[in-house]
Design goal:
The complex is a heterodimer of chains A (about 350) and B (about 325). Chain A contains 10 helices and 14 strands. Chain A is an alpha/beta fold. Chain A has 2 domains: about 180 residues, Thiamin diphosphate (ThDP)-binding fold, Pyr/PP domains (Rossmann fold, 3-Layer(aba) Sandwich); about 130 residues, Rossmann fold, CATH 3.40.50.920. In chain A, the strands form 3 sheets. Chain A has a 7-stranded mixed beta sheet with strand order 3-2-4-5-7-6-12, with helices on both faces. Chain A has a 5-stranded mixed beta sheet with strand order 9-11-10-13-14, sandwiched between helices. In chain A, strand 6, helix 5 and strand 7 form a beta-alpha-beta unit. The N terminus of chain A is likely disordered. By secondary structure, chain B is of the alpha/beta class. Chain B contains 11 helices and 8 strands. A 6-stranded parallel beta sheet of chain B has the order 2-1-3-4-8-7, sandwiched between helices. In chain B, strands 5-6 form a two-stranded antiparallel sheet. Chain B has one domain: Rossmann fold, CATH 3.40.50. In chain B, helix 6 links the parallel strand 3 and strand 4. The model of chain B has no long low-confidence stretch (mean pLDDT about 95). The chains are: A alpha/beta (about 350), B alpha/beta (about 325). The interface between A and B is large, with 44 and 48 residues.
Chain lengths: ~350, ~325
């Protein structure tokens, strides 16, 4: 077993999410010889988004593997390598391509530990980029994270800040289970302080991004930025918003969510993925089941329209939630609940 | 090949067959949950392959997998308990006969999705290569699995990266009820290996000595960095695809009978007798011992408890 290197001494460095992810990979590949990276264009090119840039030069071709276009194959090989002592980190260029590997992920990797009576572990990470944005279109800009919460045995992480990107990825690589790691396109360029050294963020733990007493917005990924912008506007109207950033979709941190809503007694659930059967549906049901008598209004869902992600900017804008929609929903809920 | 080794392979083949017969018996009296997938007729493949491996080598199996597990060294009691949904089973009743795994005897696992463990075996071989270990990995699969997309992807990667994996394609002629000639346009599945850049052969899967020798060669090649091998083993399942499928309707009685004449057990037994290395009496004693041993295991398994009626959410994730 590899030992942790020196604990962080409180030193932080400013960097973008992309760099924080690369830092996590470098840190863990240095510390643990079992960790290796594979995916399309990850070696020589450094990954479609530059996350794995420089790893080939630093760790060599045995640990940084360019693969052919074979999503199911590379995820499938990762399962076998993980069972046989390695810690693979696979990069899938778009979450839209995860369904190609769906059987290996959802019916194979996710079930292994349980179906073998705990005899076999599958410690692997599948990183992927997601987000609905102009130019991606129906096959390159989905937000299908909600689909994966239906499969017990998969952990699902979704960092927002650079610090969380590093901390969650380190935790994901060290986790003895398969972890699906969603990286938002909206956030790759976001800068922020990242603790140096052995910095981890636990999977399964949400965080309160912003404190407020009047209403909780529960959200994740790129929508955290929109929730924050909405909260700024609402502050001017005298409404104090609390933002809960899930950070993990599975396991879901019910405690942090319910504690927040129990305090504010009003909740808006905001998600970039489709509303029907998604994480927003799960959150709304979970909050109402647990806090029905405390709530001063219905839990409102704001999520993507049920259409394939379109190509053209106005069509994209119409599909995914915007700040004005969040502000309007909060004001409606506030008036009904008489906050102001 | 030395006589002691061949006699042990003979005994193992009898055991594999006896186990299938026991499962069929338990299925008929409804003491087994789910269905069986009989391996009768194909015993030479599991036994010949595993006899040529070292204990540190690994195998991945599929739904018709009990023979592979027994040949690789599974505990008969835990195996039978799992087939019967008992708490003492390999997977504590969570998996059943199609879903197990135990690295303690080099078993990477099996599952009911046809072809799904071919990449698992290939990935285990990738691990062996990265770590610089001398392990060789065997991927067992059928002629049906050969047409799954993920099998193609895995084999391409094995060829590309020269991985120490042996693809054992058990061509028993039918994917459930659909014959090979109604599934593919080529005559020999072994020919496909060439397209992935490694050696492929079509061999007599009912001749345990041939299976052993070819596996031994492939393993030596894999161990010394020579990469993957594809062995299409021609064979036949005597029974239906699952318990309750008589195996007729899509196969003629003549065809089944002709293949039964090529029984792998009878074949090795006759050779050993002709050589003067085995007598009918010895064979009868060997067979009686195997069946008696299994009877004993079955008694214990039938008396073993079922799991408690409970949902264990803690079983989902490793800690």
């Amino acid at each position: 077993m590899a030992k942790p290197m020196t604990k962080t001494q409180g030193a932080v460095k400013e960097m973008r999410v992309q760099e924080a992810l690369r830092e996590a990979l470098r840190y863990e590949m240095t510390r643990d010889k079992r960790v290796f990276v594979m995916g399309e264009d990850v070696a020589l090119f450094g990954g479609a988004y530059g996350v794995t840039r420089g790893l080939l030069q630093e760790f060599g071709q045995d640990r940084v593997l360019d693969t052919p276009i074979s999503e199911a194959g590379m995820v499938g090989l990762a399962v076998g390598a993980a069972i046989n002592g390695m810690r693979p980190v696979v990069e899938i260029q778009f979450c839209d391509l995860l369904p190609l590997a769906m059987d290996q992920l959802a019916s194979h990797a996710a079930r292994y530990h349980c179906m073998t009576g705990g005899r076999i572990n599958v410690p692997m990470v599948v990183r992927n980029k997601f987000a609905t944005r102009p130019g991606g279109g129906p096959s390159h800009s989905s937000c299908n994270h909600g689909a994966f919460i239906h499969f017990p045995g998969l952990k699902i992480a979704m960092p927002t800040t650079p610090a969380d990107a590093k901390g969650l990825l380190l935790s994901a690589i060290r986790d003895p289970n398969p972890v699906l790691f969603f990286e938002s396109h909206h956030l790759y360029g976001v800068r922020g302080p990242v603790p140096e050294g052995d910095y981890t963020v636990p999977i399964g733990k949400a965080t309160v991004r912003r404190e407020g007493k009047d209403l909780t917005i529960v959200t994740c990924g790129g929508m955290v930025l929109k929730a924050d912008a909405a909260a700024d506007q609402l502050k001017e109207k005298g409404i104090a918003i609390e933002i809960v950033d899930l950070r993990s979709l599975a396991p879901l941190d019910k405690e942090t969510i319910l504690n927040s809503v129990a305090k504010t007694k009003r909740a808006v659930v905001l998600d970039e993925g489709p509303m029907i059967g998604g994480i927003s549906a799960e959150l709304a049901a979970m909050i109402q089941e647990n806090l029905f008598s405390d709530l001063k209004g219905p839990v409102v869902r704001i999520a993507a329209q049920p259409i394939p992600p379109p190509h053209s900017p106005p069509l994209v804008d119409a599909m995914i939630p915007d700040v004005e929609q969040v502000v309007a929903a909060v004001i409606r809920l506030a008036e009904g609940g008489r906050i102001v | 090949m030395d006589t002691a080794k061949r006699k042990e392979m003979l005994r193992k083949m009898i055991l594999v067959r006896a186990f299938e017969e026991k499962l069929e018996e338990l299925y008929q009296k409804k003491a087994m949950f789910g269905s069986t997938h009989s391996y009768r007729g194909q015993e030479a493949i599991a036994v010949g392959v595993c006899a040529a491996l070292q204990s540190t080598d690994l195998i991945a199996s599929y739904h018709r997998g009990t023979g592979h597990l027994i040949a690789k060294g599974a505990d008969l009691y835990k195996l039978l308990c799992e087939c019967m949904g008992r708490a003492d089973g390999y997977s504590q009743g969570r998996g059943g006969k199609m879903h197990m795994g135990d690295m303690a005897f080099g078993f990477l696992g099996n599952t009911g999705t046809v072809g799904a463990t071919v990449p698992t075996a290939t990935g285990a071989a990738l691990s062996a290569k990265i770590r610089g270990s001398k392990e060789v990995v065997v991927s067992f699969f059928g002629d049906g699995a050969a047409n799954q997309g993920v099998v193609h992807e895995a084999m391409n990667l094995a060829g590309l990266w020269k991985l120490p994996v042996i693809y054992i394609c058990e061509n028993n002629q039918y994917a459930m009820t659909v014959s090979l000639e109604k599934s593919v346009a080529i005559k020999r599945l072994g020919d496909r290996a060439q397209a992935y850049g490694f050696e492929g052969k079509t061999i007599d899967g009912n001749d345990v000595e041939v299976v052993y020798e070819e596996t031994e060669k492939a393993a030596a090649k894999g161990r010394s960095g020579g990469g993957a091998t594809f062995l299409e083993c021609l064979t036949y399942r005597w029974d239906g695809h699952f318990g309750g499928d008589p195996g007729t309707g899509y196969r003629s009685k003549e065809e089944i009978e002709a293949w039964k004449q090529k029984c792998p057990i009878k074949r090795l037994k006759n050779i050993l007798i002709q050589e003067g290395n085995l007598t009918e009496a010895e064979f009868a004693t060997m067979t009686a011992h195997v069946y008696a041993e299994l009877e004993e295991v079955a008694k214990r398994a039938e008396a073993a408890p079922l799991p408690r009626k409970a949902v264990d959410l803690g079983s989902i994730f490793a800690t």
